[in-house]
Amino acid sequence: MDKNYFRILKELGIDEIFVEKDNMQQDKIKLLKEINEEIQKCTKCDLYKSRTQAVLGEGNINAKLMFVGEAPGADEDRLGRPFVGRAGKLLTSIIEELGHKREEFYISNINKCRPPNNRTPTPWEQEACFPYLEKQIQIINPKVLCLLGAAAARAFLERNVAITKERGQIINWKDKYLILTFHPAYVLRNPSAKDTLKEDIKKAIELAYSD
Ligand code: URA
Fold it and tell me: What's the whole-model pTM score?
């Protein structure tokens, strides 16, 4: 890009800030791609042995709200995308019922590899994988993290969480807010909990978009 290019942009009234902003987006994409390359090769815990592929996450890289689940399931492991199975479809439909789109937000998991038979990741497996999520959070910089299920909450709070008692609360974590709620897979097994999950997600969205 030569000086003429910038002169023409200025004459057209286009602010240079947009150029800087675009560079920032490119940096975010590059950094997330680097994490993806790392996780595809990761052997820090044994979950790599049975994975088809690691699943980084997807969505708006400038999202104010990030959903964090437990770990990929069979569909996610096969497709390389988070929350695309039955639980994911429920999450997406709740977001839509609240008048939003899944693409507005970023969706990821504590663990990037599917545990065999979808078992809950162990605390050690969570600890080994957590730095990848921390890097994603640093890059995307959401205001709110909505933690789906007790396992995701345990990884952040570093203690066992009784999700039925602790859901719905807003918790300070670093410079962010955490909102703990049920995992959509739990709601599939207990349909009467759907309204509660929806209420918590509504709260997370409202907090994310508040000033
Ligand atoms: N359950 C999760 O916790 N994460 C997914 O991506 C899918 C199902």
Answer: 0.91
Is 70 a pocket residue for ligand 1 (Cβ < 6 Å)? yes
Atom of ligand 1 nearest to the CA of 107: 6
Q: How many CB atoms lie within 10 A of CB 32?
A: 19
Going from the C-alpha of 105 to that of each of 10, 30, 57, 102, 157, the distances in angstroms are 33, 19, 11, 6, 22
Provide CB contacts within 8 A for 196, sequence distance 6+.
167, 168, 181, 182
What strand order describes the sheet that includes 65-69? 58-59, 106-109, 65-69, 144-148, 176-181, 170-173
**Residue 6 banded pLDDT, cuts 50, 70, 90:** confident
Options 3.40.50.170, 3.40.50.300, 2.130.10.10, 3.40.470.10; which CATH number does 3-208 get?
Answer: 3.40.470.10
Mutate to test the pocket of ligand 1, among 58, 67, 83, 145 (most ligand atoms within 8 A of CB): 83
Q: Is 83 in the pocket of ligand 1 (CB under 6 A)?
A: yes
The verdict on the CB of residue 71 being under 6 Å from ligand 1 is yes
pLDDT in tens, 39-93: 999 999 999 999 999 999 999 999 999 999 999 999 999 999 999 999 999 999 9
- The SS3 assignment for 148 reads strand
